[in-house]
Amino acid sequence: MKRNNFIAVLAAAFVTMMFAIYAAFIFAPEEQTMGIVQRIFYFHIALAWVPYLAFLIVCIASILYLTKRETKWDQLAAGSAEIGVVFDTLVLITGPFWARVAWGYYWTWEPRLTTSLIVWLLYIAYILLRRSVGEHDKRARFAAVFGIVAFVSVPINFMAIRWWRTIHPLILKSTGMELSANMRVAMFASIIAFTVLYILFLQLRVAVENSNEELEKLKDEIGS
Amino acid sequence: MDYLKKVFAIVEKDIISELRTKELFTSMLVFVLLTLVIFNFAFGQDTQADMVDLASGILWVAFLFASILGLNRSFVHEKDEGCMDGLMLCPVDRSAIYIAKVIGNLIFISIVELITVPIFVLFFIKDAAGINFLFFALIIFLSNLGISAIGTLLSAISINTRARDLMMPILFFPVIVPVLISAVKSSSVILVASNPITDVYAWLQVLVVYDMIFLLISYLTFEYILEE
Which pLDDT score, from 0 to 100, does residue A224 have? Predict the structure, then answer.
């Protein structure tokens, strides 16, 4: 990883995150019925977007690994999956806080929540699979195949609130958005901030994988 | 033509070895029956009309658990007895091995279910007259196809991991959920004779789409699993 590149992304993450926090807590108007609790929505939707991106990258990197057999694609898939799971975990935590106020309960088995949980479990399984294979090449191949299979369920999750009638709010519609202008600014600021944060984490994670690999090579050379 | 002959040679091998031991078949069947009985205890014996929703869920969970047993076995033997190496040395395409295994699993699971369904209806459905069993069979077949298509791929993966068969449910359950949902929903429609048959069509479409996606992905990626 190039050092300058990393510092640039770090700075971008810091600036966008500060602005997102400002936009969500101060700039955006207070929602009339729900009050301050509604503000978690800006982070919730941004956190929910990142796993879609992360798992798409897992899928693309997996296909590239199987066709090109370059280790960097495997590292990218591994890193992206782990970060996606972390963000998805936060989605599953922030959602219930909002739901408790909006719906009166933390959890309900409606399509969007159910499919979110399934996607989360899928990528937990992906990580477990990686842990469960010792040989480097085999692990990369198996993970790549499962990374492609798992992604089949991600579009279902995205479409869940569109196909089935549910109580989960639908923000991004083809006809436009049900948000005031300032709220929209806060939402997009948050989405951009968390996307930059994802890129930052991904760089770090791939760098760690690289170091790990180097370490393995050195160990082999010593012959231990 | 030649390809199909190779596929059926492998299917034949699996059937013959199963006919000699009958190990897989009997354990799957007993397992399904036990699951039905245990669920009956868990949910109580009041077989009211609204039991149908519950019953189709019970049926599919039992089928899913049983198919996991079958899917795991389909590669455990090959691996333990060194037959996998033999298969891979054969001058056949890797995809032929996959197709053969899917057909084999499909046959085993279907036979077990064919015996289970009448018993299930006897246990859980009070008013069986007028149920469209042809459509019910179609639902079961399409679901089985999805289960075998992706299950064969995932069992080939899990058998090669350190955790072996333990890995299989972890990989398989979250992936099969869309098929399971469609199977349960469409079964609970079909098991009430008065429901209009058109209510099933949407779920059948989901099943067909997933069958095709699972078959295609597995067909294309299977060779990467067996690479040694």
Answer: 60
Give the structural domain span for B196: 2-226
> For the segment B48-66, what is each residue's pLDDT rounded down to a tens digit?
555 777 888 899 999 999 9
Cβ atoms of residues B60 and B146 within 8 Å:
no
Nearest-angstrom CA–CA distance, A103 and A101? 6
Cβ distance of B162 and A152 shorter than 8 Å: no
Interface confidence (ipTM) of the complex:
0.90
Dump pLDDT digits (tens) for B78-120: 888 888 888 888 888 888 999 999 999 999 999 999 999 999 9
Tell me which residue in A66, A133, A156 faces B161 most closely, judged by beta carbons: A133
Say what the pTM is.
Answer: 0.89
Q: Is residue A194 part of a domain?
A: yes
CA distance B108 to B192: 28
The predicted pLDDT at position A164 comes to: 60
**Alpha-carbon distance B141 to B130, whole Å?**
20
Flag whether residue B221 sits within 8 Å of chain A, measured between CB atoms: yes
* Closest-approach residue (CA) in chain B for A151: B175
**Is residue A223 domain-resident?**
no
Of B157, B162, B213, the CB nearest to A146: B157
Domain that holds residue A9: 3-166+176-215
Domain assignment of residue A220, yes or no: no
Total tally of structural domains belonging to chain B: 1
Q: Which residue of A has its CA nearest to B165?
A: A132
Please give the tally of structural domains in chain A.
1
Residue B59 · residue B187 · CB < 8 Å: yes
| A45 found inside a domain | yes
Q: What is the CATH number of the domain that holds A69?
A: 1.20.120
A127 touching chain B per CB within 8 A: no
Residue pair B32/B70 in contact (Cβ under 8 Å)? The answer is no
Q: Which of A109, A129, A131 has the most B C-beta neighbours within 10 Å, making it the best mutation to test the interface with B?
A: A129
Answer whether B113's CB lies under 8 Å from B144's CB: yes
Residue A133: DSSP 8-state: -
